[in-house]
Amino acid sequence: MVVCNEICEKCNSSCLATHFHHNFESWTSGNNNIDKFIQDTQLSIHSDYKVSKALEWIPYDRFCGIKYFTDDEFGKVYLANWIDGYISYWDSEDHKIGRKGENMFIILKMLNNPNNIASEFANKVMIYQTFYGITQDPETKNYMFVCNEICEKCNCICFAMHFQRNFENWTSGNDNINIHIQHTQLSAHSDQLSKVLEWIHYDKLCNVEYLAEDENSKIYQANWIDGYIVSWDDNWKRGGQNMFVSLKTLDNPNDITSEFKNKITIHDRVYGITQDPETKNYMLVLSSICKKCNCTCLAMHFHQNFVNWTSSNDDIDKFIQNIQLSIHSDYEVSKALEWIPYNRFYNIKYIAKGGFGKIYRANWYDGYMQHWDYEKCKWSRQDQNKFVALKSLDNSKNVTLEFMNEITWHYKVNDLLHAVIKFYGITQDPITKNYMMVLNYVENGSLRDFLNTSHDKLNWYDRLNCLWIIAYALNLLHKNNLIHRDLHVGNILYDNNTRIYITDMGLCKSADYNASENSKESAYGILPYMAPEILRGQNCTKAADIYSFGIIMYEVISGLPPYHAIHV
Known about the structure:
This protein is of the alpha+beta class.
């Protein structure tokens, strides 16, 4: 290849070969044969995709941590870290070689006959090695190949090789445990990291607390500061920082295989082994996995957090926990409820009186859960400082049947209908001790409020569209064999003509519910909306809901309250 005036005759442009050629005067190995050998490889490189084949002269002071490793059939072999890393591309902005693999492990192999470099190269650099360049020990004056072994199975530098190079940097203090961990690491070649174990220093675990004891061992809970290995990118990349893990004591570390069989179930994922420096007990570091998903799913993340909150009421705790344990994937997160401490709200203001209690508006600092952040090992949230409605239920400090009915039915219907106001969780007023539902806030308030102030702004399309949305939601309720039993314009929230929500699900029941079994519920609702058969003491049916909807139709069309002209 000929370079004239920094233009490559082959490419007719300034290619990589010309950049290398321009730099020839900046280095020398002190040996003409080696210089020519390196220069010939560089002048054969014209494009980025071939740059990995370029050799370079590497000054010896660009290596650190140099130590004797072994002898092979050709001579001594050393291990070292290469400070700069290998040539990866040409950086056209900074006009210099771009590199990767800073401080990477490399192998230095002695050159016996530098004057016959081509023969030496053919003999010493095998098919399972990557060759980066040549250097010289300034003390011995020996020239050395700079290379990297690659895995014979993978034909690349795979995970197993990265693990192997780190063996000397850790020990459990027990040969059987070391061998067991190393065996799992040497079996990891490409995508098998989930089966790898590692030695985890005890100081990488925090908040260690005793949990329980089973027939085989003591069990502790802790947070793992670093988290588990995910991938390699010049170093190990990790996920799940500060994640919850369980620690199970090992009774017989010298029979580690048997210990694994006895103490690990198919619903455990084992990350590694650690040792308590005080008791000297070895412990497995693991997390439980979901029987349904066969992985650590969202339900498991919720479960691990149960110890960190309580509503101080077993029924409410169980209600929230059962819902959280039913959430397995990100697309289901919107169905989750949570216990929300009252101090996570601010600007709390009374706005109205509902059928079962007072309603307040507030700002929610945190916003609702959107998805699980696997890197930070916590919930990622949306709409911080959003407005929410806090619906207090009177005397709910003693958690009445009415309160549990309200939250249960609201949740069930919320799962079915987008037209039911969104339910985020439960909180408690620390002064009144009343529990409160945390709901989405609708700016315009009830449909009744809107009709009182803005009915004249609605054209016929708006009125019919509003009624269509209510009818659609009511039809879905009935298709799922549910009846609302308290439908009126005060229980319908109007955000705009396309966002209308049904609320107050406290009286909602299954359509086959028999009210005669409970005399207290023989009549219920707001009088103008109650069907005649309800007033006669008959059971509420889907037809009674439709009667209520008929009254709502009259109001939306006319703008007037029902029976407005009748004075009692």
